[in-house]
């Protein structure tokens, strides 16, 4: 998606518009908070959740065509997508495919924490890494004990 360099502020806000039925609300909120923390630990960025009003990063669970011209594809395939920083309303927003089974453990389904951490990388301006093992590598691979790769750290510290 259109690539803006980075946010012009570091106190970022986000709102969870709706929740997946796959996990309870508190678990989803915690997964998103931990996913933002992955990046907040490496750069001078803060992330504040807002219950309503204008925010930088709008988070939604949606399926198929959902109004941005980038329809989701049902179960598997594309799991989520996110928009780069910028001034347009959709800039920074992250959409998660509701046709996936969202979980946290490594068994069936996809880790909402891992996918969110990757998507929020895009929301912050990161592209894909060519290093397998990096969070920003373009394909999903479950990691039981998640660790950010040095390439991910280099990327976020280059930007902020
Ligand atoms: C580890 O996090 C992710 C890996 C792969 C994906 S994806 O397979 O949905 C990817 C979307 C993306 O790169 O964000 C693909 F292009 F559709 C999403 C999150
Ligand atoms: Zn990606």
Give a description of the structure.
With 160 residues, this protein is α/β, with parallel strands linked by helices. The protein is built from three helices and seven strands, in the order βαββββββαα. A five-stranded mixed beta sheet has the order 2-1-3-5-4, with helices on one face. Strands 6-7 form a two-stranded parallel ribbon. Helix 1 (25-40) links the parallel strand 1 (11-16) and strand 2 (46-49). Helix 1 crosses helix 2. The model has no long low-confidence stretch (mean pLDDT 96). The protein binds (3R)-4,4-difluoro-3-[(4-methoxyphenyl)sulfonyl]butanoic acid and zinc ion. The site of (3R)-4,4-difluoro-3-[(4-methoxyphenyl)sulfonyl]butanoic acid (8MR) has 12 residues, from strand 4 and helix 2. Zinc ion (ZN) is lined by residues 118, 122, 128, 138.
């Amino acid at each position: 998606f259109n690539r803006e360099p980075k946010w012009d502020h570091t106190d970022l806000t986000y709102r969870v518009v709706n929740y997946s039925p796959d996990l309870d609300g508190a678990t989803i909120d915690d997964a998103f908070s931990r996913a933002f923390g992955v990046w907040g630990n490496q750069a001078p960025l803060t992330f504040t959740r807002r219950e309503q009003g204008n925010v930088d990063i709008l988070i939604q669970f949606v399926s198929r065509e959902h109004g941005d011209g980038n329809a989701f594809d049902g179960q598997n395939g594309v799991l989520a997508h996110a928009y780069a920083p910028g001034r347009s309303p959709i800039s920074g927003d992250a959409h998660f495919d509701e046709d996936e089974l969202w979980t946290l453990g490594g068994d069936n389904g996809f880790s909402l924490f891992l996918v969110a951490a990757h998507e929020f990388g895009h929301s912050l301006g990161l592209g894909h890494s060519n290093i397998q093992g990096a969070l920003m590598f373009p394909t999903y691979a479950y990691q039981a004990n998640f660790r950010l790769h040095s390439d991910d750290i280099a990327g976020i510290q280059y930007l902020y």
